[in-house]
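Reopening this ticket.

The earlier resolution said the output was attached, but the attachment link was broken on my side. Pasting everything inline this time so it's all in one place.
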Amino acid sequence: MKYVSAFGRKFSLVVLGVICLLSSAQAAKITGTDILNLLLDSGVISQEAAQSLAASVQSRTATAPEKDGINGEQLLDLLVEQGVIDASDYEQLLDRVERRESAERRGSEDESGDMASAIRVPYIPDYVRQEMHESLKFSVEADVVDKVKEEAVRTARVYGWGIKEAPSWVHKLKISGDGRVRYQGDFFSDDNTFGGKPDINDTNNSGQPEFDNITDDRHRLRARFRLMFEAKPFERITMGMRFVTGNQGNPVSSNQTLGNFGEKWDTNMDLGYIRHDAMTKDYMLIGGRFKNPFLHTDLVFDSDMAFEGLAGTYYFQRDDTLYGNDSQWDTYLTAGVFPIQEIHSSAEGLSADGAKIVSLNNERDKFLYAVQLGTDYNFFNTNQLSMGLAYYWYENLQASRNPSGLDVNDVTASDYYQVGNSVYLINDPLDPNIKLGLASKYRLLNATVKYRFANFFPTYVFLHGDYVKNMSFDQQELEQLVGQAVPKRDIGYQLGVTVGTQKIQYLRDWRLSFMFRHLEGDAVLDAFADSDFLLGGTDAEGYVMQFQYGILDNTIASIRWLSADSIDSDPLSSRNVSIDTLQLDVSAKF
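Inline output:
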């Protein structure tokens, strides 16, 4: 088979001769790859012919192709056989190849002087090299374009580009939100009290004993969605509002249980505040309804608990001046006053004694006063130690019994209960309607320690310990009010460990946690305690295990198992209540 015309043969000889002469002082060794590239680049043979020639040469060799490329001598032999070059041209080229190889062996400084440093590249046709070049160029350009586009969109959002005459609030408003869908299974022990778990809220509303089921397993679908708006009307002023699903009468849960015959969900304003941050960063003031401002776990307050009132934090060791140098220690004092329940009753139609009691009760609004001294220590390796000692003073939470024939002290009963705190009958003994109020006072001393290990980055280890004691618990007073023996039930503690990424934000981020809790009945106010452990409240002991995994960016799948028993046995059945809860969640945020 002939690969080229007679004109092509003559042209190929000219090209090969010129290239060989010009490269004699530079090339260390001419290979079959070099010859094929010369023929192909000069248009003497086609791409298909070059590939066929290369395959023919390699097929004649029993071994693998040479590391320097296609064997030159074998290619010249094949060119002669195919009539591409004649015998005289072959001899000249072969002689040139042999002289270069001889010079390489002698280390000569002749026309092959620096051939030892030559780099050999396997034969790659021009069209393949062009495709590789275009592919690489497209890949790099696409990556650059994507990054530039992403940065441009981010910048446009910050500065309001593309928005005609954008109002100033566009640059000052931040919108975020999250949603969660949950399956929850509550599994009750066969030994649980047949009568059920007291529901004090329904009892006080109906005047008759009401109970929640704790004997038949329960399966529910629940959801929670939150939408947050935060704006900065001024550089150091932040205003926030958050809207959330759930029952507005429940201060510790925003879960919406599905299956109410198509009823629309309740939506409430969960947060609403104005915060001032000092320019020097050494203090903060906030007012309204806001997140827990104290160092805490969920031993004393549920994680969804919001505080209403005023709070502030002063940082003792922060120095944000021009030549300042912040310390590794960040010591602070946080204090706040939080109204819990306003009492404002009318004395119309009451006797003088009744009017006097109403007047006294109107001066007994319920408050929480709180103060915490805390510190963070930031190690150079990004480990962090956080400690806080808090005192929570609940004022006027203890209920008062009604005098005979009157119900003026009904207002001293709390508006919301879970279960666990000591309660007693405050209604007139002759009144058939039941009214229950808190029997104990609550002055809580709370010590919290948290430690973050970053030594195993990107895997972190988080440890925490929490201890609380009700300093105003009076066992003798409670027994007089309740009318029966009351065990000492005034302390609580919690230990926990979490392993995983610092936070769950991206695909394959994860966290595994374990926590043990012991929380006695009057150690904290049950209305604000964890709403999931033993289905809410105090008088509970057990553990919680959880695994969270980022299935997509900002999307988390979670499995959580809570196993809890009541600490005090039921006085009627002498049995402890046991409840296990399984929660399977999928949540997303933006």
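Reporter confirms the inline version is readable. Residues 1-15, 18-28, 62-68, 108-119 have pLDDT under 50 and may be disordered. The first helix runs from residue 6 to 22.
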